[in-house]
């Protein structure tokens, strides 16, 4: 098998259906499989997807929802393809995107993972698709919304063009086209992350293993990110800051002083509490 496409479904029948259909509508110069992991949805979405796609999709049913990383790992432990694509269930794949990135990866054997230009529903760039690794300094500027023109601390690489191809640090988990050999060396997704952060952590480990991470801005997908509600669930806010804590503690705490660590942990805690408090006053749309 050339490519295994892994999609995690959690109570998103319509979105998952449309994502899979956006892949199936095109033909490709390689063989592939689509694996949908149902993360213990507890509704009828899995049954409806099975009925809709019949034998065109492989399904894995998880007995419990242990998060996005664990859901993907259910499939990753079973695949034996040359490449793996981690794809969000709320995306639409554009024509030629998979073909172009597959061709690029075939020609550049030193690239461990590749992402594409990810557009939001309004056409704007999803800034998470091309990033540097977070550190104390750039995280401070970003979390407190402080303008920063330094290219050394430009977390979202806004100084680089959106439609070109170049090496970066980090992709978004919404679309990660990964060489299986690189994944085998770096290891599976860290299931300590329930949601958020697992993509950054995996990119960090892929680069540590000696592979390049590339942003391929000549091809696109659409990410229907945050389309359902302006009001976030409290659990999602908590998981976002918890993921920050896990990542920092795993990759940076040992190289930072005790004082810096205390300041970072306190900052994360205060911001999390503040966001949870402000979220109480947001109205659903």
Counted by DSSP, the helix tally is 9
Order of helices and strands: EHEHEHEEHEHEEHHEHH
Q: Kindly report the name of the CATH homologous superfamily of the largest domain.
A: Spore Coat Polysaccharide Biosynthesis Protein SpsA, Chain A
- Mean pLDDT across the residues is 88
Q: What characterizes the major β-sheet? A: 9 strands, mixed
Amino- and carboxy-terminal Cα gap: 43 Å
- The whole-angstrom Rg is 19 Å
Indicate the CATH topology of the largest domain: Spore Coat Polysaccharide Biosynthesis Protein SpsA, Chain A
Question: Beta-sheet strand percentage?
Answer: 15-25%
The top level CATH class name of the largest domain:
Alpha Beta
Low-confidence runs? 227-232
Task: Please identify, by name, the CATH architecture of the largest domain.
Answer: Alpha-Beta Complex
Q: Specify the structural class.
A: alpha/beta
Number of domains: 2
Shape: globular
Can you give the helix content as a percent range? Answer: 25-40%
Number of strands: 9
Topology record:
Elements: E1 3-9, H1 13-24, E2 32-38, H2 45-53, E3 58-61, H3 68-76, E4 83-87, E5 91-93, H4 97-107, E6 111-120, H5 136-143, E7 165-168, E8 175-179, H6 180-186, H7 198-208, E9 212-223, H8 234-251, H9 258-279
Parallel strand pairs: 1-2, 1-4, 2-3, 6-9
Antiparallel strand pairs: 4-8, 5-9, 6-8, 7-9
Helix pairs in contact: 1-2, 6-7, 8-9
Description:
The protein contains nine helices and nine strands. With 285 residues, it is α/β, with parallel strands linked by helices. Strands 1, 2, 3, 4, 5, 6, 7, 8 and 9 form a nine-stranded mixed beta sheet that branches.
